[in-house]
Amino acid sequence: MAEAQDAHVKLYWLNKSRAQNILWLLEELNVKYDVELFHRSRETMLAPPELTKVHPLGKSPVIEITPPGSTDSVKLAESGFIAQYLCDHFPEGQRLVPQKWKEGREDQIAGETEAWMRYQYLLHYVEGSLMPILVMTLIISSLKSPNVPFYVRPITTAAANKVIAMAVFPNAKKHLAMIEQLLETAPDGGSYICGKTLSAADILLSFALIAGEHRFDAMGEWPGGSAKAAHPKVFEYIQRLKQEPGYKRSTDKIRELDGEFEEPAALKKRESRI
């Protein structure tokens, strides 16, 4: 791992994307890295076609790692895979992964600690289950935006609200309830999702939860009048993540490189549930 610390990492960063998670992770790992910036189209919010030169799908995040003294590099995509690879190969990654085995249960089925099992699950859960809900919300909500011709907007708005009420909101309630329960039962009474210390799972969760922070209320009627009232621990957790030194360094890095950092956009009140 000592040699890995001298490797060079390049992050292909896209605004308002999960690439910000990986930038935060790189800050925690204390590795040498460069950032190449890409920006979404203001009209369509899609990634620019130039990203297809980096990866066939034209998505972000993507990282490229060059070992010390070598011109060969490895290029990685998908947030969970990137996080696992970086934590496996860089020394500081060890503190971002919970202890795997219970004492005396090494290499046994069901010998893993609760914290490690949570960690592994959450690395896949974020992209496989949580993010699709938020992406679906963004796509459906676009049917209510000013970009839709005004004479058909009442129809598209009614259709969008129907889909959100039937499919999106019920799932969002399940997800926030589960995350609330995970925080309530964090191992060792910790304030992070896997215990007392920050893990890569917290970092990967950050974008989805910060992106959803001001969107959840627009999905429907929550017990207590708001998503925050219904799930206070989730919203306390979101604020805690935003106060993490590594998160702040990652946002400062983008301000330094790009002139500004814009958190994932919140839905405006006029776009909520017309």
UniProtKB/TrEMBL annotation:
Pfam families: GST_C_3 (PF14497), GST_N (PF02798)
Domain of life: Eukaryota
InterPro entries: Glutathione-S-Trfase_C-like, Glutathione-S-Trfase_C_sf, Glutathione_S-Trfase, Glutathione_S-Trfase_N, GST_C, Thioredoxin-like_sf
Similarity comment text for this entry: Belongs to the GST superfamily.
Coiled coil: none
Name this protein carries in UniProt: Uncharacterized protein
CDD domains per record: GST_N_GTT1_like (cd03046)
PANTHER family (alphabetical): GLUTATHIONE S-TRANSFERASE 1 (PTHR44051:SF9), GLUTATHIONE S-TRANSFERASE-RELATED (PTHR44051)
